[in-house]
Each structure stands twice: as C-alpha cells, then as structure tokens.
Amino acid sequence: RKEVEQDPGPFNVPEGATVAFNCTYSNSASQSFFWYRQDCRKEPKLLMSVYSSGNEDGRFTAQLNRASQYISLLIRDSKLSDSATYLCVVSANSGGYQKVTFGTGTKLQVIP
Amino acid sequence: EPEVTQTPSHQVTQMGQEVILRCVPISNHLYFYWYRQILGQKVEFLVSFYNNEISEKSEIFDDQFSVERPDGSNFTLKIRSTKLEDSAMYFCASRVGQAANTEAFFGQGTRLTVV
What we know:
The structure holds two protein chains of two kinds. By secondary structure, chain A is an all-beta fold. Helix content of chain A is 0%, strand content 60%. Chain A contains no helices and eleven strands. In chain A, the strands form two sheets. In chain A, strands 2, 4, 5, 9, 10 and 11 form a six-stranded mixed β-sheet that branches. Chain A has a five-stranded antiparallel β-sheet with strand order 1-3-8-7-6, with no helix packed on it. The radius of gyration of chain A is 14 Å and the shape is globular. Chain B has strands spanning 5-7, 10-13, 19-24, 31-37, 43-50, 53-57, 65-68, 75-79, 88-95, 105-106, 110-114. In chain B, strands 2, 4, 5, 6, 9, 10 and 11 form a seven-stranded mixed β-sheet that branches. In chain B, strands 1-3-8-7 form a four-stranded antiparallel β-sheet, with no helix packed on it. In chain B, strand 4 and strand 5 form a beta hairpin. Chain B is globular and about 40 Å long. The chains are: A mainly beta, B mainly beta. The A-B interface holds A 31-32, 34, 38, 41-46, 49, 87, 89, 91-95, 97-105 and B 31, 33, 35, 41-45, 48, 50, 55-56, 89, 91, 98-109, 111.
C-alpha cells in the first residue's frame, strides 16, 4: 500500500459544482495532515491544514478520519480559478524527525 | 512576505556534467528539504537537512547527490554526474520548526533538463 494515496483524476466539474477529494495514508502514527495546491509548473502552496475536528476556510472544508486513515477536501461553488492539482501531504515522526510525504495529487479542472 | 528563493529557474546541462542547484531558505527557518517532481508525476522527497547534517534521505538520493549549507544562508543540491532521468523540477523547502503541524514553504523550483 502506498504511503499516501490519491485518485489522480482528472476531475472535470462545471463552475458552481461541489467536488470532493479523498486521500488515504498507510502510517497510523501520522500526526499532521495538509492539503497543498499546485498550479501547473509551479511550486506547491499550502491550502489548509487538516485538524482532527475538521476545519473550514470559506468554500473549502477539510476532514480527517483517523480510524479509516483518510482525509478529505470538499470544495463548494467551484470557481475556474480552483483548477489545479491538489496534493495531500502527511507528516509522521520518523526516527525523531518529521517525514513529510506527498500524495500523487488530484487534478481538478473547473469548466465554464 | 518572506519566501524561499531558488536559482537558477531553469538549467540545461549535458549528461555526465555536474550541476549545483541553489536555494535560500527563509531566514529564521531551521529545517531544509529538497524534493523533485518529474514532469507529470508526483512530488518526491529527496533529503532533509538540519543542524548542518542530513536527517533523512530517500532511496533516490544516492551517491550522485549531495547537499551543503556552505555559508549559513544558501542550501545547495549537487548532482555529480547528471543522467537523463535526473531531468525534473527540483523544489527546495524550509520549515521554521520540526513540529508536526509546521507548514513547509516551497521555492519556485529549478527546472533541470539533462540532454
């Protein structure tokens, strides 16, 4: 099983739609979880951290399910500018250091 | 806003040549990383660096790779003898601390093309 697994997509959705991505992780000792956004040929940038209680930032909602070892990202009212690749990132203690592992990313294309 | 800067933005090199990719992390950050992303593929961890030594490296980071922080500000990745398959985008990242929930900030990347 991959350390961090995502559906690569692409997810093609119309403007205004709601779309959800899931990400599963294999290390049950993982401590922190993030969603990063990566535009084509650009660096990844933090979209939001994922907290145990779930968290919301405007149109974006992140959830964590430790029992099933997955995190999710929900985007409501999709905009054209949301088109990007969304990277699931998991941080786990590895021999005293935090190992940060990226998923393959899920590509989202919002179409007019 | 402080940022991680990388130079050059694009490097073309011949197979077998040595390349040095440079990064200037955010000034108060203590943990440094190199990642690579082959076109169309996932972001892959190469190496992490703290307190002037490698704290972890992946299987990709073989003897052809080395990292250095020569002067307290620059953080460099050297590839000794480049191969065609080293062609990728190389991202440098830094974090202020090692706490699990600390955000990693990425530079804009160096696109390495080996011909």
